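Predict the 3D structure for this chain.
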Amino acid sequence: MNKILILGGTGFVGTHLCEKVTRLAWRATVPTRRRAAAQHLWMLPPLDLFEVDVHDEAALTRLLAGHDAVVNLVGILHGSESAFARVHELLPQKLVRACAATGVRRIVHVSALGAALDAPSMYLRSKARGEEVLRGADLDLTVLRPSVVFGREDRFLNLFARLQRVFPVMPLAGSTAKFQPVWVQDVATAILRCLQERRHIGQTYEACGPQVLTLKELVQIAGRLAGCERPVIPLSPALGRLQALLMAALPGEPLISRDNLDSMTVDSIASGLLPGLQALDIAPTALSAIAPSYLHAPGLEDELLAMRRTAGRT
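Done. Predicted structure below.
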């Protein structure tokens, strides 16, 4: 494998994947809507950044030409039925046609745990339809289905830590929903393993960590590690949907949507019907081994930096 196109390479998982790819001395191409927003990748050789809209099929086809494989990490968590369709279904359709036009056959597609055509949420149904599009094409496909992904830059545990620094209590919808959090580095490694060995072609892997935790437990862990744990007040389904409706009316991306609540009615845990990270020779890393390193009490980071400076002078 010499040259990889990474769609969604500027995002959370994509950034970690890019770092790993460059260590292998593979050439990676990363499209971005705004080059200025990808400054964190500028210093990674041999990485080629292009300012392009991947939803422009002609541009996507030109971009894909000459590559050995493509990784699709593009996804959204919030939106309308049409927004989910555009990202999770129409983009895979365009990718299939671009592969046919350029002769690129190898695809690693990152979907979501719980994706199913009869799933309760628009998000999970659109993810399943995107998988179906790719499976129906004559391609060398591998699908990864991760649970919620955690890591230093995540928008999950960090969000709950920030909220607890502001609010005295945490009213929480979907508090009993179960997750099997997976470390971002394990997901990035899994993508590389899929690319490195042809035996993974045709497989679907569930990318899950070793711990099953409820949303309430995850919120409590985030607060405790950040030094600001607040009482969690579980909301009934009706109150939870009301809360999501009110949040959706606020400007910007909502913290939680009604579709997110629908997704959480299906536990995001391994089904046991598909191979997991162990089949990729990866021992999943526990949340408890990583989260304390970035969800810490205010002031601790300054103390650590001061200690490092002092050590550097001795």
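Residues 124 and 155 are 19 Å apart (CA to CA).
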